[in-house]
Specification:
By secondary structure, the protein is an alpha/beta fold. It folds into 3 domains: 234 residues, Rossmann fold; 156 residues, P-loop containing nucleotide triphosphate hydrolases (Rossmann fold), CATH 3.40.50; 69 residues, no CATH class. It contains 17 helices and 24 strands. The strands form 6 sheets. It has a 6-stranded mixed β-sheet with strand order 6-9-10-3-11-12, sandwiched between helices. Strands 18-21-22-15-23-24 form a 6-stranded mixed β-sheet, sandwiched between helices. A hairpin with a 2-residue loop joins strand 23 and strand 24. The longest helix is centred in the middle third of the chain and has 16 residues. The chain is globular, with a radius of gyration of 24 Å.
Length: 505
């Protein structure tokens, strides 16, 4: 692609690397992006924040050629460009690393890195050469990943690092990160941050989209806020603070985000005594009605494995589970559901949703037995139940028939949570309930927690985000290497102590 840039004149300032002028996008009656004017300077880290549905995903898709714009202009170093296809975006040097990895899980890491640019000789793949080149690339980026392993054998966070390495290797000049640390360990996040700083020093422009505002302040030079498809402000990061950004995003104060409903704990719902299984050992704890029990630890510490055992997804090997004072055997998910235990899993897309089914179908999945007469489904009852959950949870969807895959991450998480509310569960296990959701949706999820507690339910909350679990848990248990190593009452220990217990220092 040939781009002619007009003469700026001697001493004239250089134009931004990429500039948006009245950029607009409509999907039928939906006005997703509203006449956005925004400039991205060469060699800056520019953060974009906003609630789910604010227009961030639409902006990414316009800049990477996935969607055509409805009106407005995109300029590259001062010259208008179309960016009408992904191929045109890549040719310019525009690339994106998405929150949901869009690579080939059945291929090796090396094959994914060189997908579309395979090394061949006489028509045959030179796999060994590709693996060796991939190792050099990954080591150079500081990513400790196996080049010859199947991509599917890696964690979601590691797969995101592979996607990052692939983008960096393609001569990128403008790189978009969409929630890049949602599934990364602290070590992986540190390696990613080091790469971002290196790319910035090399003149690459970084667009950093994240709901974790502490990362925005650590990395970015400027931050822009989208709300309801419109740009509501751009700030130099050093000249703003978290309270101002939250106010711009959602018109709420920061104190309203981590609002914790005070409920007097009731009877014990669940107790484990020396419970052991794959990935965890000798865990003893209890959960009372009206109580949030937090489980904190680094990824791989055993928290999720323990929770999945409580829900029957993983067998326990020894120890005891008591439900409302009685010993019980939970060998399958159906056993847990009959008792009144519900699980909102860590990966909503892979484990919590049927993406091809409608919103209503997903919300009704645990209760279809109640909505049927034998083999016949009661259509009106099904519709009423789904519509009530959509209304009560404020799920943004075109209708209950819209596929779950078409919704934002925050609205998908509301479906995962909402499908258990009609079930009448008494113990809710939430594994990373706010990963990839905006601060406004977080506030709504925390409000829902308060409703559950006031109704007499108990909550087990697993989170890798320490401020969240520290602020909300009545009792906080710290896991390390499969063991429960410390327990604290609410407010008993600070962040530094809890983190030190999780790391083992």
């Amino acid at each position: 692609m040939s781009i002619q840039v007009r003469d700026q004149g001697v001493g004239a300032p250089s134009p931004p690397l990429l500039a948006l002028e009245r950029l607009d996008k409509r999907f039928g009656a939906t006005h997703a992006l509203k006449a956005v004017d925004l400039a991205f300077e060469e060699g800056e880290v520019h953060a974009i924040v906003g609630e789910n549905g604010a227009g961030k995903s639409t902006l990414i898709k316009l800049l990477t050629g996935v969607h055509p714009r409805s009106s407005g202009e995109i300029r590259w170093r001062g010259a208008p460009v179309a960016i009408a296809t992904p191929h045109e975006a890549i040719a310019l040097g525009v690339n994106a690393v998405h929150q949901e990895v869009v690579l080939c899980p059945h291929l090796s890491v090396a094959a994914n890195l060189y997908l579309g640019d395979e090394r061949t000789r006489f028509g045959l793949l030179r796999r060994g050469e590709m693996v060796r080149a991939a190792r050099v690339l990954l080591d150079g980026l500081g990513f400790d990943l196996p080049a010859d392993a199947p991509l599917s054998s890696l964690t979601i966070g590691q797969q995101q690092l592979v996607a990052t390495a692939r983008a960096q290797s393609r001569g990128v000049k403008f790189l978009i990160f969409d929630e890049p640390t949602a599934y990364l360990t602290r070590r992986e996040a540190a390696a990613l941050f080091a790469l971002i700083r290196r790319l910035k020093a090399e003149g690459v422009t970084i667009v950093y989209i994240s709901h974790r505002l502490e990362e925005v302040f650590e990395l970015s030079d400027r931050v822009s806020v989208l709300r309801d498809g419109a740009l509501v402000g751009t700030r130099t990061t050093a000249d703003t603070d978290e309270a101002e950004l939250i106010s711009l995003m959602i018109n709420r104060t920061i104190e309203q985000i981590y609002h914790k409903v005070a409920v007097e704990p009731g009877a014990t719902l669940l107790e484990t005594r020396s419970l052991s299984g794959e990935g965890f050992a000798d865990v003893s704890l209890s959960v009372r009605a009206g109580e949030i029990v937090g489980l904190y630890g680094l990824i791989g510490a055993g928290r999720s494995e323990f929770a999945q055992s409580l829900f029957g997804r993983r067998p326990s090997r020894s120890g005891e589970i008591l439900w409302q004072g009685r010993p019980v055997s939970i060998r399958a998910e159906r056993d847990a559901m009959r008792l009144g235990i519900a699980l909102s899993p860590e990966s909503r897309r892979d484990q919590g949703l049927c993406l091809g089914l409608g919103v209503g179908n997903n919300l009704n999945l645990p209760v279809y037995g109640r909505l049927s007469w034998g083999p016949l489904l009661r259509g009106r009852a099904e519709a009423r139940n789904a519509d009530r959950q959509i209304r009560d949870l404020r799920i943004k969807a075109a209708s209950r028939h819209a596929p779950a895959s078409s919704l934002s991450g925050g609205n998908q998480q509301k479906i995962v949570i909402g499908k258990w509310l009609s079930h009448g569960a008494k113990l809710f296990i939430f594994d990373e309930p706010t990963v990839g959701v905006d601060v406004g949706t977080k506030a709504e999820i925390y409000r829902l927690f308060g409703d559950l507690l006031q109704a007499g339910a108990g909550i087990v909350m697993i989170s890798s985000y320490l401020p969240e679990v520290h602020e909300l848990a009545d009792t906080l248990h710290v896991f390390r290497r499969g063991a429960l190593v410390a327990s604290h009452a609410r407010g008993e220990a600070g962040h530094e102590r809890i983190l030190a217990e999780a790391i083992g220092v």
